[in-house]
Amino acid sequence: MTKYENSLPIQLIKARDVAMQYFRPVLADNDLTEQQWRVLRVLESKGPTDFSTLSHETCILSPSLTGIISRLEKQGFVTKQKSPHDGRQFYIHITDKTQALVEQLRPQIEQQYSALKKTFGEKKYQQLSQLLTELIELQTK
């Protein structure tokens, strides 16, 4: 059996925690959770997104995402609109407040990416990113 230390799922969780150490202070300074930021970044990048796609893209289970969306809506960061084609489905939209926040945080987030790449090494960062992309793509095969 694979040694505990070489367990890929555990290594990935630990690596995520190390990477997030670079970003958590920026998010905390702006009263955002990691999950809220994930949702806002996906919406800012992809535009209005239906709930199930948003759940998949953010890796947040539906019950948890429901609460996150409710809190973001109360804070004025997102709005919900029913699909014109299916009344059971709704799309999440960002607001101007979100767009302004993302623009404000973009330089700080990029600075943290630079710090991570400097510490880890740009080449190793690119290699790791490519390998993780390939691993993720196994899901569609």
Number of strands: 3
Which stretches are low in confidence, meaning pLDDT under 50 for 5 or more residues running? none
Give, in order, the helices and strands. Answer: HHEHHEEHH
CATH fold annotation: Arc Repressor Mutant, subunit A
Please indicate the count of domains: 1
* Gap between N and C termini: 25 Å
Morphology call: globular
Question: What is the level 1 CATH name?
Answer: Mainly Alpha
Strand numbers in spatial order across the main sheet: 1-3-2
Helix content class = 55-70%
Give the percentage of residues in beta strands. 5-15%
- The structure class reads mainly alpha
CATH architecture: Orthogonal Bundle
**What Rg do the Cα atoms give?**
17 Å
The helix count comes to: 6
| Average of per-residue pLDDT values | 93
CATH homologous superfamily grouping:
Winged helix-like DNA-binding domain superfamily/Winged helix DNA-binding domain
How would a crystallographer describe the biggest sheet?
A: 3 strands, antiparallel
